[in-house]
Each structure stands twice: as structure tokens, then as C-alpha cells.
Amino acid sequence: MVNRQWLCASYVPPDEFPTQKHFELVEAPMPSPQEGEVLLRTLLLGTSPAQRMYVTKESEFHIKVAPGEVMSGRGVAEVIESCHPQYQVGDIMEGTLGWQEYVAMSPDPQVKDGSHVTPVKRVENPVRPLTTVLGLFGQRAFSAYVGMVEIGDTQPGDQVLVSSAAGGVGAIACQLARARGASRVVGIAGGEEKCRWLVDQGLCDAAIDYRQEKLEAQIGEALPDGLNVYLDNVGGDTLDAALQHLAVGARVAICGHISTEYLRPRPPGPTHYYNLLYRRSRMEGFFVFDYLSRWGEFEAQLRQWYADGLLKLTDHVLEGIERTPDALTSLFTGANVGNCVVRVAPDPESVPAL
Ligand SMILES: NC(=O)c1ccc[n+]([C@@H]2O[C@H](COP(=O)([O-])OP(=O)(O)OC[C@H]3O[C@@H](n4cnc5c(N)ncnc54)[C@H](OP(=O)(O)O)[C@@H]3O)[C@@H](O)[C@H]2O)c1
Could you tell me if 50 and 158 lie in one domain? Predict the structure, then answer.
């Protein structure tokens, strides 16, 4: 048996996004677990725009992957051999597996650069499809939750705007706005097809294609009374256009700025920030990992809303480890619709269905 791994083949230049050519698929020997370790078989690999920074030499991101190293990434795995007394064969784990089919590692917390890190942890009460671990009941949903509930403080009757609404975080955020009683949810996405999907799937009341002209006017038409909550995933001109439509007391949650994140020199900040003053509004950024101690609480609420019929799965699954670089690329071309993940091996039948 061999272990297929994706290595970083070359750093990604700052003005490019990662594609297949920056990675190399190799066959390595099967790892064998030592005392205190478990052998994991990767089932799913997640994607995150932040992975672009891992392979950009000039980036200041804390995770770095050099040419020749296995690409880093989070995923879901099954324990297939255990040399650790607290873990059994069949346990479902989530964490930093890397882009590979198998990995042997200790699930115990470790001290790295002075802080405690848990590279993989057991998923309590996993359900099929296991994409839920990365999407609806996972980190993307927790990000949407922090933006829409903790910072956005969405209230019944609020009018809500979400950018990158057809993406992983965005598609869940739109549903959370509804679950919190928003009276109107408007999504911004790239292209007619994604906009139609947002409305047809019942995630949004209306959707705006930012690639068309006059984004600011389109927001005004979709939200004539202004917006109470804006979850921003893209920054740049989209954020600036949204700031022109704040209702009094609006909350703007900054989740990401993918449209400007990699531009150097950095573009100037939003021209219309003064509306935060005139409309007595606030704008606040967040990192989902700062809320780690509350993920259990978020997950319980998300599971309840799912049981109440208020949430649905919005997964975008690419089949086979061969597609992993394509999955990452799709976040930058906009080819993904919803929570983009790669299926490396089928969900085990032993896991109960949702
Ligand atoms: N703060 C946190 O803790 C946290 C946690 C997770 C994610 N994030 C951030 O949240 C955002 C969404 O992440 P995700 O994982 O759910 O990704 P995603 O939204 O599923 O995928 C990225 C999407 O961004 C859009 N996009 C790409 N390049 C763009 C550009 N130049 N201008 C405008 N839109 C562009 C594309 O959608 P279109 O086709 O619609 O353009 C693409 O589908 C990202 O900015 C990410 O960095 C933050």
C-alpha cells in the first residue's frame, strides 16, 4: 500500500493564485503509528482561502509550506489503527491532516511556539455526510455564526446583506440570518448562475451580481430602507458600496477581504466609512479561532436549527484526492458553490445518517 500525498512543488507568486502546477502528487510509503499515535485514513479534505498564504513565500502567515513539503490543510479522517489508549479504530477525527491519504500522529495537545495546539481531535456525535464536520456543523458555519449572531446581532425584522453569499461561509450566513428572523436577506455573488442558485435554493430573497455595473445602485434597489447587518467576505469596492446603505445602528462584521487580500501595495480603505458616524453604526472584524471555547455552543444551536428545518446542506464536493488543488483554485476563480471539500474516501457506513 502507498500513501498518495500532494507536495508543494513551488511557491505561488504573490500575484497568482494556487493551481495544479504549484503542487506535485507523489506516492510515499504507508506511515506506521508509534506508541501514543493513531493511524488516520483521510476521508475529506477541506479548503480555505488562507491556504494560499501557506505557499506564498512573501506571506507573513503563521503556517508556511515550503517546496518538497506535504501541503497543509484540515480534513476529516477515520482511525484505522490505534496505539493510543483513548482512541479506537473507527473514531472520526478532524484537524490538520495535510493533503495526504494517510497520516500517523499523536492526538494529544502539543506545545508549539509557546502555545497549546491540538492537531486533531475526535468528532463527538459525527453524522453522515461527514461534510457537516467542515461545513454546516464546522468551522465555516462557526465563522458565519460569529458574523451573523455574535457580531451582527441579527434581530427579527432586520434587513441583511452578505457578500460571497454563494460561498461556504456566505451560504450558511444567509440561512443563519433567516433563522434569527431577518425579514429580508440579500446576497452578493459573482455571476448570474450563482445569483439564481441563491434565490432558487431559498437562501436569499434577492441576489446581486457584483460583476455587473453599478453595485452600489443595485444594493440600494434591493434594500431601499438600508441594511441592518452586513457580513463582509470580500472587502474592497463591495464593502465600500455596502457602507453607503447602512441603516441607523447597523452592524458590519468583517469576516474576510478576498478581493484585496493579496494586493500589494494595499489599496486605500473604504471611502464611505464616514457613514459609520452618520448612521451611528459599527464595524468589527473577527477570527473564528478566537471563539474556540464556544464552538460546542455554536454547534448545538446549529444542530437545533437544522432539526427545526431552518438550515440545509450547501456542499460542493470534488471527488478524489487528485482534485485537491482544483478545489483550492475554485475559491479564487469562483467555481465553487457552497462549502467546497474534496472526498478522498467514502464516509464509513458505521457513522449514523443525519
Ligand atoms: N475571519 C475568519 O475567522 C474566517 C474564517 C473562515 C473564512 N474566512 C474568510 O471568509 C471568506 C469566505 O471564505 P470561504 O472559505 O467560505 O470561501 P468561499 O466564499 O467558499 O470561496 C471564496 C469565494 O470568494 C469569491 N471571490 C474570489 N475572489 C474574489 C474577488 N477578487 N472579489 C470578490 N469575490 C471573490 C468567489 O465567489 P464569487 O464567485 O461570488 O466571486 C469565491 O467563490 C474568505 O474571505 C475567507 O478568508 C474568515
Answer: no
Shared domain check, 324 and 206 = no
Q: Which three cell numbers stand for residue 178?
A: 433567516
Ligand 1 center to 310 CA (angstroms): 23
User: Residue of the nearest CA to atom 20 in ligand 1?
Assistant: 167
Residue 35 domain flag: yes
Report CA(256)–ligand 1 centroid distance (Å).
7
Separation CA 251–CA 23 (nearest Å): 40
- The minimum-distance atom of ligand 1 relative to the CA of 50 is 47
* Distance in Å, CA 279 to ligand 1 centroid: 27
User: Is residue 218 in contact with ligand 1, taking CB distance under 6 Å?
Assistant: no
User: In a mutational test of the pocket of ligand 1, which residue from 48, 140, 148, 258 has the highest number of ligand atoms less than 8 Å from its CB?
Assistant: 258
Does the pLDDT of residue 10 top 90, yes or no?
Answer: yes
E strand map for the chain: 2-8, 23-29, 38-46, 74-82, 92-96, 102-105, 110-112, 115-117, 120-122, 159-162, 184-189, 206-209, 227-232, 246-254, 282-285, 315-319, 339-343
What is the residue with the minimal CA distance to atom 5 of ligand 1? 143
Convert the pLDDT of each residue in 108-166 to its tens digit: 988 877 777 889 999 999 999 999 999 999 999 999 999 999 999 999 999 999 999 99
- Is the CB of 348 inside a 6 Å radius of any atom of ligand 1? no
Q: Report how far residue 7's alpha carbon sits from residue 22's, in angstroms, rounded to the nearest whole number.
A: 9
- Tell me, yes or no, whether 86 and 180 share the same domain: no
Residue 23 CA neighbour count, 13 Å, CB half:
30
Q: Are residues 277 and 337 in the same domain?
A: no
**pTM exceeds 0.85 for this model:** yes
| Same-domain status, 168 and 123 | no
**Which atom in ligand 1 lies closest to the alpha carbon of residue 47?**
15
Residue 222 pLDDT greater than 80, yes or no: yes
What mean pLDDT value characterizes the chain? Answer: 97
Residue 134: CB within 6 Å of ligand 1? Answer: no
Full residue range of the structural domain in which residue 327 is found: 2-134+314-343
Q: What are phi and psi of 108, to 5 degrees?
A: -75, 145
